[in-house]
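[SOLVED] Need 3D model of a two-part complex

Original post:
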Amino acid sequence: MLSPNAFNLIVPVISTQQDELIQKLDQIHNKLLTNQTLQFHKIDSLHFGRAFVIKAEKDYPPYFVISTNYDGPLQAHLTEFLVKTNLIDLLKYCVGFPEGTAGNREIMDFLIQNSTLRAYFYRGTWNKKVQQILKEDQTRKFTEKYLDSLDTEKMSSERVRNKILKKLEEEDLLEEFPDYKPPKILWQFILVIIVILILLPVWAITVLVLILILRRYEKTDIQLSDTYSNPSLVIEMTESEDYIVQNQLTHLVDIKPGWFRLKSLKFVLGAIDWAAKYYYNNGKLGGIPSIHYARWVIIDEGKRLLFMTNYDGSWESYLGDFVDKAAIGLTGVWSNTVEYPKSKLLFFKGATDEERFKIWARAKQIKTHVWFTAYKNLSVQNVENNARINKGLFKNLKGKAIQKWLSNY
Amino acid sequence: MNRLDKSDIQGLLIRGYSGLPNAFFVFLNIKDPSLFKNWLSKTTFNNSENNPKVFALNIAFNADGLKTLGVPVSGTNGFSRAFMEGMDTDHRNRTLGDFHLNSYENWSWGSRKDKELQVLLMMYAKDPDILAEQYENLVNGFSENGINEPHPKIESHFLPGSKEHFGFKDGISQPIIRGLSQKAPEEDLINPGEFIFGYDNQYRKLVRQPNWANNQFGINGSYMVFRQLEQNVPLFWNQISEYTDEPGNPMKAIELASKMVGRRPNGQPLVVDDPITDPGKLNDFNFHAEDPGGLKCPLGSHIRRTNPRDSKSASPKKNSRLSAKKAVNNHRILRRGRTYGDALSPTMDIMELIEKSKSGNKGLRGLNFICFNTSIDRQFEFVQHTWINNRKFHEMYNDVDPIVGVNESKDQMAPTEFEVQAEPVRKRYHEIPAFVTLKGGSYFFMPGLAAIQYLGKM
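Solution:
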């Protein structure tokens, strides 16, 4: 089973209650670890969690969104919410929530019925439960302190390794975790290539026609201006950024009208979702190593695109990395949305207009009222490194491999 | 790409004025805008065409200064958020590490409480007497020119050997601007638009610039970052000596200090084994091929952080290294800083510095850190946040720049380590104290000469 998984509850809020719910969420965020309503920190299966309100605009109602990245089966994860939190105090603001006293059964049904929208999902770290991540970091920290206390300069790498193993055993810190094996790509990939080659004459003409339609659209696309029209909105976003190494962002845009754009969007998202399972499944998305999780959800029946991500480092470095290394992926997705910098052939230009792209990204960012992380001091690379170290404790390492393993500390 | 218009670019941008070792940084306030504008139109500011032999004058304005002169400073007019909001905001404090000892409460100028600073006047001279004379003329003209001086000026003079106060040769690494005469391999050339408005940047786009006044106002100008960094030289050498396993042996202290910087005091980069005799070649090196693991030059050392070059390459292959370097070249800054204060030892000989540090006082000395860039977010702030103060730099856990990094988060003392990679395992140095503290800072806009004339005639 793929792990962790993505859960997103997206449900309309009773419109007169929107502001009260937002107030409640703000209060929760100010007391993230002590509030009595949404106790994210008690959920053992939770990696990252967020709760926010999409404010009502145009014809759209306000929405309440809870988005989590979790271990294990969904039922067990949601049961943790029912048992350990008072989530019901927030759910009662939602349209369709059972009136009066709702039993656990009814609440569970409500959660599941309102979380059916597909998440196109990228995982930065695979098959490592929260407890594993925390324990591996603890073990490494302990070992680092131990190494500091030794005079290692004249020791051989074997001797250092043996000392570490002995000490960890004494302290009962040796715990092996299941090995991670990403899904293999090979046969699927070959099958797809064969099918493409067989159907060459058919799809070539179709693609040509699609390209012509696309170019007509692209020529008349409008794009957002490349100057800041409302800097105070950005300031509001930055108020919750850069307290720890990890940051988050929630992003909402209108999808360009018409079936063509929606189909293109779904096609590209589907391809990314597939690549995230079979190709970009080792901690890097297009060469970018700082993304914990990223997901896209199409809401309002194909009218808007919601994007949520947890990443390391500053907003500027995160988006800058994307522009430098994965502009094609960004543009492939978001050129199908309104006011994106002008694209060419779906994947080109777009995000390469660096300043305009960053202004657009800030303009479409929305507030994430409550945000929680189970391992706030660890970057993706820290998590991967800790796992590498831990695995190495149980391998039969010889010669140069020992030195290579020691350099992870 | 357009040729650089040296007649319109203020001299400090293109030239470092290395022939003018003395300087005053004068903080001004505009008491009467129309008198001040008169003064602006009458005064000659240096452009970049010639190398001044005797004296040079340049000027820059913060957002408040431009507003006082009637410039509409807003996002729609192309001004950057960083410039408009200023260096001292809550979020920027977190980005730049400006809290606790570096908190704005300790700044003598430029903080959010400083409502008077509007103009920065920079005077450079070969001879200190000329400098004093020019400054006196300026002061004598204060009332007729509508000028106030809200804070004491900062004086600057070079130290022997082009060193900074800790004893290390400084200013070696500068971006090489494409279009100027200096020859360099293609991979090392940086587009001028990174530092000067009106030209292509590294994305081959014209940088978004202050576009007011028929889109002319920003051309040939730049954003200037100025931070007054005070250096505690005795603390530096005493603490480093204590960290070594032979505190009485100055050679060990020099070795550890070099590991922290990434170069030896004479400028020799640690990654290069053979001594470099030609000072022009002190910057000819890369990291990845010679030292991917940081065994020669620690991964978190100062120069490896402030310009990683090809450090972050995924593999030793040439293409991968070039691509890593290319990504790094989107974050270069053009440094024009100057040391200030008397040296702890007049000769700047390292052994003397170490000796004098044993009984030395902190004193008032440091670096007026000045750099130019057209995108404050992507260049200066990026270097400060993502490279210097990033605990997770280069896949490490809790390591910030040992020389200038800040090892405290806003809400709690969160000590960091400095890791020196070694075999069999790394050596860690804990809780490095603050050798450098921030005494003032601000973002300025340095206009082109035509823009200054325009301001003067408004």
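Edit: Chain A touches chain B through 48 residues (CB under 8 Å).
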